Structure formats: C-alpha cells, structure tokens
From TrEMBL, chains A, B:
Residues 44-155 form the PurM-like N-terminal domain. It holds the Pfam family AIRS. This is Hydrogenase expression/formation protein HypE. It comes from Streptomyces doebereineriae. Residues 167-320 form the PurM-like C-terminal domain. PANTHER family: CARBAMOYL DEHYDRATASE HYPE, HYDROGENASE ISOENZYMES FORMATION PROTEIN HYPE. Belongs to the HypE family.
Amino acid sequence: MQTATESFLDQQIVLDHGTGARLSRELVAFMVGVLGDVYIGEMEDSAMLPVPAGNIAMTTDSFVVDPPFFGNGDIGKIAVCGTVNDLAVVGAEPRYLTLAMILETGFPIRRLHQALVSLRETAIEAGVKIVAGDTKVVGPGEADGIFLNTTGIGVFHRPPKRMTDVRPGDKIVLSGPIGNHTVHLLSVREGLGFEKHVLSDCAPLNGLIDSVNEAVAEDAVRSMRDVTRGGLSAVLHEYSAALGHAVRIEEEALPIDFETRMASDMLGINPINAANEGCLALFVEPDAVEAVLKALRTHPYGRKATVIGEITDRPEKAVEMVGKDGRVSEIEELQGAELPRLC
Amino acid sequence: MQTATESFLDQQIVLDHGTGARLSRELVAFMVGVLGDVYIGEMEDSAMLPVPAGNIAMTTDSFVVDPPFFGNGDIGKIAVCGTVNDLAVVGAEPRYLTLAMILETGFPIRRLHQALVSLRETAIEAGVKIVAGDTKVVGPGEADGIFLNTTGIGVFHRPPKRMTDVRPGDKIVLSGPIGNHTVHLLSVREGLGFEKHVLSDCAPLNGLIDSVNEAVAEDAVRSMRDVTRGGLSAVLHEYSAALGHAVRIEEEALPIDFETRMASDMLGINPINAANEGCLALFVEPDAVEAVLKALRTHPYGRKATVIGEITDRPEKAVEMVGKDGRVSEIEELQGAELPRLC
C-alpha cells in the first residue's frame, strides 16, 4: 500500500485531473482520504448542513500565497485561518468551510498532500469541517502552482459585532505583534535568512476570541478585526471612516518584535502596513480593557496582547500616531501595499 | 461623470488593486456599484444572513473558462449558473452567493465590468444575492486573466433530493440538447465559425426546476444533476456507481442539435462527454414522466426535454447505449475529457 501511495505522491497534476472524468474522481478520492474526518461532504452537488434558525455569517477568501510553502506554515493552513478568523471576528462560531482549488499542470501531488495535511490539522484545531470541494486544473503558465479558496459559514450564539458599535473613548488592543508574517514570507521569498528568527503568526483565532468572550461581558469588546492585507493601517483607516472619528495610536505601544523591526528596516517596509495572519485588533470598552488583556494573555496566541491606542472624539477621518518624542504624525492610507501575494 | 467612469474602464488591473490599501478599496467600491441591488454584503469581514432553521445546501465552484468571454455569455454568467444549478438540483432554493476573483495584472477593467454586468443580470434572473466578495491580484503570467469562485447557500422548502433515492425502472430525462456549450467554446477558442450557429446553453436552471416541482408530486423526480464537466457520461457513471445498477440509454433519443453533431464530428468530440452549463438530467418515477416532460417543455429552458433511457434492475456498475441498429455497446468512463477549461 505504501508503494501505491508513494508512487501517486510522486506524480504531478495533469489537465485530466480537472475534467470531471476518472482521473478527476481519483484525485477527489485521494483528497477526501487525506482530509479524513474533517471532510463531511456528501457525493452530491451540494452539501446539506444543519443550522439553527437566525443569522449565519458567511465569508469568502482566495489564497494566492507566494511562496505557498514556508517555514512554519503553508497555503493550506492560511486558507483555514483566514476564513475562520473572518467569521470569528464578527462574533460567529466558525463551522463549515468549502474548499476550491485551482492547480497548475505539473504541480507535485506531494505538495498538494502537504497542503491538505496542514489544512486538515488547522481545521481540527479550529473545529471546522470541510463540506464541499471543487478542483480545476489549468495549463502550464496559466496559474502559479496552487490557488485555494475557502468560503465559510458560522453560527451566532450571541449578537453579531459590528464596526459601528465602536464608540469614542474605546481602547484599541492588539492580540500580538505585527509584521512577522510579512517578514517571514518576504525572507523565504528572497532567501534573506530572517525566516528562522521570525515566524509567521498564522493561526486560527476563534479559540482566543472564545477565551475573551468567556471572561468579559458581552459588550465589553465592541468590535474585532483580524489584521491581514493592508496591515494595521488599513484596519484603523477602515474604522476611522466607518465611525467618522479620528483614531490615535502610540508608536511606543506597537508590539513589534526586535528581529522583525530589524528585518523591516532592512527590507524597507513599515510593520504598520504589513499583512498578518494571526493578529487581532479589538475595540474595547475602556473599563473592560484590563479584563480583556488578562483573558488574551492567558491564551497562547495572545501572550503579547497590548493596548496601542484609542478612538478619539474628534469627528474626522484620520489615523494619527503619537511618536516616541511625543509628536503627532498622520498615518496616511497607502495607495497600495506594494507587497502582493502574502495571503 | 461619463468621462470619469470611461477613463477608469480604460485602465488595467495592477498589483495594488489586491493589496488591501486604497486602490483595493476603490476597486471594491466600483464592483459594488456595478452589482447594485444584487450585492447585499456589509462592510464587515463576514456577511450576516437570515436563514430558517433546518438544513441548508452549500456548494462551491471555481471558474477558469477559456475564453472567459464568448458569443452568448461569459465567465460572470457561468459563475452564477454553475453554483445556482448545483444548489437547485439537490432541491434547494438558491439564495446567497459569495464572489471571489483572482485577477492577472494587466486584465482590462472594461472586461471586469462586462463580467460583473453579466453576473448581475444572471443573479437577478436566478433570484440570488451576492453577500461577500474577495479580490486577489497576481502578477503577469501567474493566472490567465480572470478566475472566479462562487460559493452558494440554498434553503430547503421540501426534502433534499439524493442520488440514492433513484430506483430501478426510473426514467432518465434530459431537459435539453447536449454538447452545445462545448462546441460553442471550442469554436470561439479555435476560431472555427460554428459559434454563430451553436450557442452555449449556459442558464440558471432553478426556475425550470421550480416549474417541474409545481406540476408534479414531491417524489416524482427522485434526483437531478446538471450535466457539466465530464458530460452526460460522467453523470450516468456516477449514478450507476452510487446505485449499483446498470444504466441504459438510447442513442436515437439523445437530444443533439444538427449543427452540434456536425461540429462534434469535425472536432472529434463525442457530445456524451461534452460539458454543458444549462442541461438537467432528471431521474423520474415512470408514471410521472409525461407530467415532468410537459412541465419542462412549457419552460423556455426545457423546450426540447426528452426521455433518453432508464435505470435497469441489473445489479452492475455499467452504462450502456442501445445503438440505432439495436446493438448494445458500453459507454466507458473516460480517463479524462481532454477538453479542459470549459467551465
């Protein structure tokens, strides 16, 4: 048996793996086997899934990570984390994911296996099931190895959290350091050697959010965002625009690991604009900040949680930073992050 | 205003349209504007959607159609039809779709606009809303113009329909001719000139299915499939395998348009293996066949509906065809359809 599997793993994706005939079917059977108990799809055109009455949360994300395999993770892990986190931050319990792949002819099946194993392990950690899938294959040079899409459904056990629930005076808490994912991936991509010292923060954050919800009152955390594409800057600009209030953060309070800061300086990037895959921004009612920090810090993904700023009462769309010297500067919204394909 | 829009339409996709900063936001605003009332997403990380208690249907599909724009449709239309049809065939009412795009740098925004307009019109026809989206941009040569993913949710008003509900003696009905989508796309792709005479059948089939459900008893139609990748052959093999009974069809009964047959002969393809985007296979309780045919034929997408065969009581995984001369031959499952990227 070992031999049969090994010889399959040594093969590469061909166009016929995506045409709906026998080879397609065999590839799907292989993938379903690797996913094991995490896959609960039926062999029908749609999955049929029980949900409670009320609102569900739904979100979609495609992943074009370059490189798709890196030091402490890969596109399979990111594809679960990204979608799980988008469901969790609106206050939903992530429950079901679909998984759609676009594979380039010649992609090694061993690599596909690796991504699926990592996707399975992350889905187990996050407590989500894969309920339906799709695989398309394109010719050489028509994609870059592997692209994934996960679309997720979550159910609500408490009221949804919305940006517009945030009020002036609310504190902004980050669950962990920023910039690590970007530095790690750029370092792997460019062969810079930082990747051994700075790991991606990629993680499913629903467990961390559950810890907070169990520790504090329902409306203590008004709203949450995972800080991904566009970085902290994009999140803060989004809130400032939605609320119509200026946002102020403290430069000294920003959690940036020493090696990450060094590497960022060398790479010429600003961690404020860098994509992360396991960092949560929480907008917290002031009296609840200590309790929220305590709850975050007891969880492995929140050990370095810290307050970085607040929503001001100034009615203006602006994000400003108080520097180490006390001077206030404006953080402008970037036209583009100039750093594509990190998620 | 005309000028501003026109000048935007003349632009091309750049990497910064996918990095989460200002250009990303502007592109999203443009797309949301084009989708109009069809888009009901909130500016949160997940959409929040009401559903009734019970089962929902969920399905995902990526679209890598080549060419993405063809005579009577495009990738936007197909992206709605494919997912709507997968929900409708299990007996669900298609309700919500997510839309994820992977765009290649240099893709013309005018083409993106065209795909979105067509997606919007098809969503209106099918009665579904777009509830969340995602846009990624990759470099030149890292994708082929535009790839879409739609993931859909449907709700059930009656029991789900499953393959395993089909019984020996049930008749197999096709809602319309096979092969047209494949011939149309291949003709456009290769510049053969057939595309004016043979149009793609691409259509959302939930209205057609509703017509049937209104006309006949709940269990008259035991199961349905839309005949897409792998063609009729793949569908029949799938049912034969799931049921453990041989399937028999009549060659003379197969609905194949005259021009399609000619073109297929010239192209060396067999319409039985050809992908379609608006053809339904129904597995029907024998006494209900006339009523089902009548209901199908009153709908524009079912005018050419016809019985093509039946599920035999022979306990064997096989698909056989009775030829025009009365001889029975086996239709083998293809290894691959050799015709990639038709959906």
